Amino acid sequence: MEGKLIIFSAPSGAGKTTIVHDLLSKLPDELVFSISATTREKRVDEIDGKDYYFISKEEFLHRIAQKEFVEFEEVYRDTFHGTLRSEMERIWKKGKHIIFDIDVEGGLHLKRKYGARALAIFVQPPSFEVLVDRLTSRGTDKPEKLLERIEKAKKELTYADKFDVILKNDHLETACAEAKRLVSNFLNKNKSNT
To answer: How far apart are CA 100 and CA 7, in angstroms?
Structure first.
C-alpha cells in the first residue's frame, strides 16, 4: 500500500486543529497525525513529541542544511515550522496514511510535491470577522503577535482556491462530518489498485 497524505490548512483560528482531532478519533486505524517541528515557544498545554517537536532555531537550520525536511516555512519572523522526512517515513512504515494540520504555504508545498497522493483541504472560517474574534478571544498572543496573525490570516484566505477542496466551517459538527466524508472517499479511491 502506498501511503497517502491528508492535508488540512487554514489561517490560525479557522478550526482545522479541531477537525483534524475529530478525524483522528473517527479513523484511528487509517490515520496518524504528522507531528511538525517548530522553533516557537511551547504553550502551557502542549507536549513535546505529541503536539510538536520543539527544537531550537539553530537545530532547525542545521536540519534544513542536512535536507531532513520535506517542507518548511518561516511562518513568522524567526519562527520556523516544518515536516521532517523521518516523521512521514515513521507513519508510512506503520501502513497508515498521514494527516497534517499545517499552515497554508506548507500545505500547498506538500500538495505540489505529492500530487495525486495528497488531498489538500482548506478550512474556511464563516467570515474574516469571526476569525479575528476567535483569535482575539483565545488570549494566547501578545497584541503585536495577534496583529501579525491577523495580517497573515488575511493573506492566507486568498489561497483557498489553490486547494483541492474548500471546507466551510460555519458549523463545526457539519464541517467535521463533511471532512470525514471527503477523507474516507479519498482513502477508498483506487484502493484495489494500491
So the answer is: 5
